[in-house]
Each structure stands twice: as structure tokens, then as C-alpha cells.
């Protein structure tokens, strides 16, 4: 399932066909209610303000490089309020069991 707004890029026949072919259900938010998709609206605002509006893209390759650099910073190095102001890596390290524990749990599960 993918939650989308009612913009033309999400109400097109092409997307509807793609979703149908791939078994994906499109869940539309209420028209005129961006609060239904607040985390995406927040992300889009940050992306626009911090990346798109800050750069002049001289080519497709230049745009890909600058956008990828921003994405890596956003997804790996930047603290997020939703994660208690930890970076994603810090959050993962703090909340994910060590690999050895995961392996042991898998063995126990298999042995019953």
C-alpha cells in the first residue's frame, strides 16, 4: 500500500495501471487535507528548501549528484526529531539487537 495525495501525478491512469500490475493498493488522503500525510509534506518541504532551492542544476548528472548527497545526509547523518534527535545510524545501533543475538534467536526459532 502506498499513501498518496490527489495530485495529478498520483491520479493518472499510468500509475493506476502500474499499481494494479504490481499488486499495490493506492490509498488516497482526503482532498485538501495535507495533514493526513504530514510526514511526507514535512519531508517535501525540507527537500525543496534545503536542496532544490539551494542549487542550480547544470545537467541531469549534476542534479543526480547533488540530490543524492542531500539524501545521504538526510537518511544517515542528520538527527531526526522522530528518532529522539538521533541520527538513523545512532538509532539503529541503540535499538537493534547485536548481530550475534539475532543469529542466536534464529537458531532457537529453527530448533523449536
From TrEMBL:
Integrase catalytic domain: residues covered: 1-96
GO annotation terms (biological process): DNA integration
Coiled-coil regions listed: none
Entry-linked SUPFAM superfamilies: Ribonuclease H-like
Entry-linked InterPro entries: Integrase_cat-core (IPR001584), RNaseH-like_sf (IPR012337), RNaseH_sf (IPR036397)
GO molecular function: nucleic acid binding
Domain of life: Bacteria
One Pfam family named in its UniProt record: rve_3
Name listed for the protein in its UniProt record: Putative transposase
Amino acid at each position: 500500500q502506498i499513501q498518496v495525495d490527489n495530485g495529478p501525478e498520483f491520479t493518472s491512469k499510468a500509475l493506476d495501471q502500474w499499481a494494479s500490475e504490481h499488486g499495490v493498493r493506492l490509498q488516497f488522503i482526503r482532498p485538501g487535507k495535507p495533514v493526513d500525510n504530514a510526514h511526507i509534506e514535512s519531508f517535501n518541504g525540507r527537500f525543496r528548501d534545503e536542496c532544490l532551492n539551494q542549487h542550480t542544476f547544470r545537467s541531469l548528472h549534476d542534479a543526480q549528484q547533488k540530490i543524492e548527497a542531500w539524501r545521504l545526509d538526510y537518511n544517515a547523518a542528520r538527527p531526526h526529531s522522530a528518532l529522539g534527535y538521533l541520527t538513523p545510524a545512532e538509532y539503529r545501533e541503540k535499538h537493534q539487537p547485536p548481530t550475534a543475538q539475532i543469529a542466536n534467536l534464529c537458531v532457537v526459532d529453527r530448533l523449536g
